[in-house]
Design a protein that fits this description.
Elements (H helix, E strand, L loop, with lengths): L6 E4 L8 H16 L4 H8 L4 H12 L5 H15 L10 H10 L3 E5 L4 H10 L8 E3 L12 H10 L6 E5 L2 H10 L2 E4 L8 H4 L4 E2 L3 H9 L3
Parallel strand pairs: 1-2, 1-4, 2-3, 4-5, 5-6
Amino acid sequence: MKKDLKAVIFDMDGVIVDSERALLVEWKTVADELGLPNIEQVYISVCGTTREMTERMVKEAYGQDFPFDELDRKVYHMRDERYPNGLPLKSGIRELLTALKEHGILVALATSTDGERARRQIDDVGLLPFFDILVTGDMVTRSKPDPEIFLIAIDKLQVPASSAVIIEDSFNGVRAGRNAGAEVIMVPDLKQPNDEIRGCYDHVFPDLHEVRKYLLEED
């Protein structure tokens, strides 16, 4: 096992569940209906941020009168209808969580999604028992890339930042992890790292199977 590893902190969307890709499909559908340009670029730019930050950035792109609440309700309703039994899991997540618990490693969720929605999504796919703590978007005042959410998680876990590993997929999440002072692993989802982001993470892996091998030194 990786030396001094005491806790692993997971982002949710794009790391645990394949929600970012699923939600992008619905954003594109609504954007086509409304004639909104560049929706994929806007969507990727808000990945990893809170609902409030997403609303602000969408209105910057499409105007302050844009009916964001209507968009938000519609895309999540469409997604939930498409996946009534829970969102697809990212490959390797169940095996990684199982291995971490078997080795006595603390596990936390740190997601910008609000608490009720995050808990429901994790519970729907049967992963809630793996998590020692959940820190959600409604528990912070500053969105990623601010490190607040990870600092809260580290404090609640009662471990040094140097003994924690943060797993993220989005640029904002990676930036937040670096600012929290923990080791950062990026598993890219919708967007591959650029030069700036390469300077923010410690390791990058194509999937969570490789993360498990690294953390637990499995062949």
